[in-house]
Design a protein that fits this description.
Helix content: 10-25%
Shape: elongated
Number of helices: 1
Strand order of the largest sheet: 1-3-4-2
Structural class: mainly beta
Distance between the termini: 34 Å
Largest sheet: 4 strands, antiparallel
Strand content: over 45%
Radius of gyration: 14 Å
Order of helices and strands: EEHEE
Length: 82
């Protein structure tokens, strides 16, 4: 089950172009806003990207002995406004 999700596209589909899906895995302890990291990854893959919508965030926890590592798996759809 996702931690959070925003499954809404902008209402008027004639004002944007869907570029494709983008995914990012990051440490839960990393600094910076998660959306900013996902948008930066989308701009790296799709240089014309203006926004990321339909965002889903999943948390994963890996424990080995006494060490625990939390990561966030983020996915969204990159769009380019016309």
């Amino acid at each position: 089950m996702p931690i959070s999700q925003n499954n809404q596209f902008p209402a008027d589909g004639s004002k944007y172009t869907i570029l494709g899906r983008v995914s990012l895995s990051t440490n839960a302890s990393s600094k910076g806003a998660a959306y900013s990291l996902l948008l930066a990854e989308a701009k790296r893959i799709y240089p014309n990207c203006d926004d990321v919508v339909n965002i889903m965030v999943d948390a994963k926890r890996k424990t080995i002995l006494w060490s625990t590592k939390d990561t966030y798996e983020m996915t969204g759809v990159a769009i380019d406004y016309k």
